User: Which sequence fits this backbone?
């Protein structure tokens, strides 16, 4: 019987370039619970790394401080499960530097799968992505904070994943919820 | 062609009685982003109300203050989408009082579907619950904060839903992630 191979999947949470409510390009502030929730969901579904993307030095320091607390400091002794999840986090200057990091580990450049709740064309479905994962090649699933990834970044995507539609027409999930649901759809339970 | 009827589903987030890391029964503090994330996911999937369950007066006041900001105050003008979601929130003293509230609206007592990441017996599957929803009768999906619902509450459940397993054996999702994933599994996309 062939063993189930786990997809070679990485995740990135982008704080720049993203857009604000008015559609302007901004660098968003890091939200503490984004780190926890997304790292915990990533750990649950076997994602290999969670890249927190920000070019801002004070935001990098903030992320480092939070992650260190849970992986090395008091938090690591208080809650070993939280430690395991937060250990997945890496801080990177840009999406390009995260791509280079994965390329260095895997010896092949990852394909990017970007997400966007807005109405943009040329989407790929969840089933098609699951089939692609079977190749064992690396993929990087990319989420935007604030009001979503900037158009300039989306234009560089290998794939843009279809959005979560729910069943009401209401389209305003948190990035924490969207990432959790998408991981559940892309990486079905093995047991 | 028969129109798809939306399930008659309510959600409750319980802050008492829940357990802490040591298994002791506590009343947990309300987390701001629980309200936002769960209300937004509930709105996305057509849940009718989100009951925040706490017997503590200062916590009720906190929830009321947060909800009022987004439904009546400055937040409602800043972000109308957030307003729509937060309007689903009702504060209740206990799970029993939430059940009575639903019973008063629906003229029939809702069945409770409780959730628990711990290993407890007698679980019902997602597919079976989806089939039950077709009756149009009211159901109340119940989540615990902190380390989960107290045993004394779980014993009163009509159903205990199977847990989310992921594909790694790691079992430590946030309640925000678990609620989002469970709604996605129980209320599939209509379009």
Assistant:
């Amino acid at each position: 019987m062939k063993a189930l191979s786990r997809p070679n999947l990485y995740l990135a949470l982008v704080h720049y370039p993203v857009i604000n409510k008015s559609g302007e390009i901004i660098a968003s502030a890091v939200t503490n619970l984004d780190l926890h929730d997304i790292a915990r969901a990533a750990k649950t579904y076997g994602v290999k790394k969670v890249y927190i993307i920000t070019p801002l030095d004070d935001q990098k320091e903030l992320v480092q401080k939070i992650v260190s607390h849970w992986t090395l400091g008091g938090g690591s002794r208080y809650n070993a499960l939280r430690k395991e999840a937060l250990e997945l986090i890496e801080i990177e200057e840009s999406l390009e530097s995260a791509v280079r990091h994965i390329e260095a580990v895997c010896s092949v450049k990852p394909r990017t799968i970007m997400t966007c709740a807005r109405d943009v064309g040329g989407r790929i479905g969840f089933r098609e992505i699951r089939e692609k994962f079977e190749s064992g090649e690396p993929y990087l699933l990319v989420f935007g904070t604030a009001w979503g990834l900037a158009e300039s970044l989306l234009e560089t995507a290998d794939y843009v994943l279809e959005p979560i539609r729910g069943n009401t027409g209401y389209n305003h999930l948190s990035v924490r919820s969207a990432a959790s649901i998408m991981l559940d759809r892309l990486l079905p339970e093995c047991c």
Q: What stands out?
A: The mean pLDDT of chain B is 94. Chain B touches chain A at residues 4, 6, 21, 33, 36-37, 40-41, 43-46, 79, 81-82, 84-85, 164-168, 170-174, 176-178, 180-181, 184-185, 187-191 (CB under 8 Å). The longest strand of chain B covers residues 9-14.
